[in-house]
Amino acid sequence: MAMQSKLAAGASFPQVTVPLFGGGSAELGRPGCEEADWRLVVVYRGQHCPLCSKYLNELEKYWDRLCANRIDLIAVSADSEEQVKGHLEKLQVSFPVAYGLTEAQMKALGLYISLPRSAEEADHNFSEPGLFVVNQEGKLHVVDISNNPFVRPDLERLVSGLEWIKSPDNHYPIRGTFS
């Protein structure tokens, strides 16, 4: 088994640029709109994963609350543009979706990588879920990495927690930086 390095809380988010569905590109760790100062990056397995589809559709319900707290949102996978196009036809999401995450980028993000079980599942290696919240300084404020699709942050708890963290009254630091 190869050792895998994981991103540390409080570390700078790696510079990772991916194609954005609909045109252009996105740097994952930087907000894509002027109104936002933080970014929530949701890495999903791909269009083949029904749990990912459900999670992304549920995430859409929190988009307004995230925006109200100046947190931009982007979802990304290793899928191709064509795969994302087909997937978006089945999803009900309005937030930006990026694609083409490479294995080198997955490794830079400390994600677990899986081989497809069959050609019907996927035609490429893909990452397991990851969720990163990058603050205004480009530092990782929240890190959640899973090795399977069954374990992901509860979105109500996550968004409520981010609202609390971002409140100027709370001065909540990045947690988990002591190792």
Automatic annotation (TrEMBL):
<dbReference type="InterPro" id="IPR036249">
    <property type="entry name" value="Thioredoxin-like_sf"/>
</dbReference>
<feature type="domain" description="Thioredoxin">
    <location>
        <begin position="7"/>
        <end position="170"/>
    </location>
</feature>
<dbReference type="GO" id="GO:0016491">
    <property type="term" value="F:oxidoreductase activity"/>
</dbReference>
<protein>
    <submittedName>
        <fullName>Redoxin</fullName>
    </submittedName>
</protein>
<dbReference type="Pfam" id="PF00578">
    <property type="entry name" value="AhpC-TSA"/>
</dbReference>
<dbReference type="GO" id="GO:0016209">
    <property type="term" value="F:antioxidant activity"/>
</dbReference>
<dbReference type="InterPro" id="IPR013766">
    <property type="entry name" value="Thioredoxin_domain"/>
</dbReference>
<dbReference type="InterPro" id="IPR000866">
    <property type="entry name" value="AhpC/TSA"/>
</dbReference>
